[in-house]
Amino acid sequence: MTDAFFLVSKLAWGVLRPNTLALLLAVAGLVLVWRGRRFGRWPLALGLGWYGAVFALPVAALLTLPLENRFPRPTQAPAQVTGIIVLGGAVEQRLTEARGIPALNGAAERMTEGVALALRHPEAKLVFTGGTAAIDQSGPTEAATAAMLFASLGLPEGRLVLEDASRNTHENAVFTHRLLAPKPGETWLLVTSASHMPRSMGVFRAAGWRITAWPVNYTTGADPALWWDNPFPSRLNQAEWALREWVGLTVYWLTGRTGAWFPAP
Description:
Helix 2 crosses helix 3 (about 40-55), helix 4 (about 60-70) crosses helix 10 and helix 8 packs across helix 9 (about 195-205). The chain has helices spanning about 1-15, 20-35, 40-55, 60-70, 95-100, 110-120, 140-150, 170-180, 195-205, 230-255; strands spanning about 85, 125-130, 160-165, 190-195, 210-215. Helix content is about 50%, strand content about 10%. Strand 4 (about 190-195), helix 9 (about 195-205) and strand 5 (about 210-215) form a beta-alpha-beta unit. By secondary structure, it is α/β, with parallel strands linked by helices. InterPro entries: Cell_Envelope_Assoc, DUF218, Rossmann-like_a/b/a_fold. This is YdcF family protein.
C-alpha cells in the first residue's frame, strides 16, 4: 500500500503539477483553435491564464504566506535539546555524485540551520532523514550527501544519525521514530522549510512525535514589496511549490497520515 501510494503520487504530480498542466492545456488549446475547433479557446485560456495570473498578481505570495506563517519560528531554542531532525529535500544527489562535492538546492537553509543548531547545542544529536524521492531508487541517497556535507563542516561522526530509506515526508516521520524511539521528556527540533512545516508537523505528530517546529527557508513576508522581488520564473516555481503543499496537506489528511487538514501550533 505504501509503495502504491508513493508511485501514484509521483506519477500524478508529474502530470498535474500546475506549470506543466498549464503548458499542456495551452498547447492543446492552440492546436485545437488552429484546426478550427472553437472549444479549444477554453484550455488555451486556462493555460495562459495561470501564467498570466502568476505574472500580474501576487498569486505565489498569497498561496505561500499562510503556510509559512502557520508555525512561527521560536525566539530561542530550549535550554536542552535531545536532537535536531533535518528533513531531506535540500540536496542534489545526482549532481553530488557527478561532481564529487555536496550540491545543495534552494532549500539549503535546512542544512545550514541544522549545523548551526548542532554547534549551539553540543549535547544534541544531528539527525538527517532522507533516502531518495525518485521513482528509480537505485541512485545515491540524500543521507549520503548529507553525511559528506556535515563531515566537511567538521561535525563528529558520532553526533550524526542518518535515516536513508524514506521517500516522502510520511516516511521521514515514521522511519525516524522507529530509528530513534524518542522518550517522554526529550526535546526534539524539526528543521524544514517554513512552507513545508504544517504538513511535516502533522505527520510527525501522527507518527508519535512530540516535537518543536523550527522553520527555515522563508520565501516571502508580510511586506507587499517582497511579493514582487522574485523574477517571474521564480514566482512560477514558488506558486507551484505552495500548491503542492496544499494538495499534500489534503491528500495526507484524507489518507490518515495526519490528524488535521491544516495542523496548527
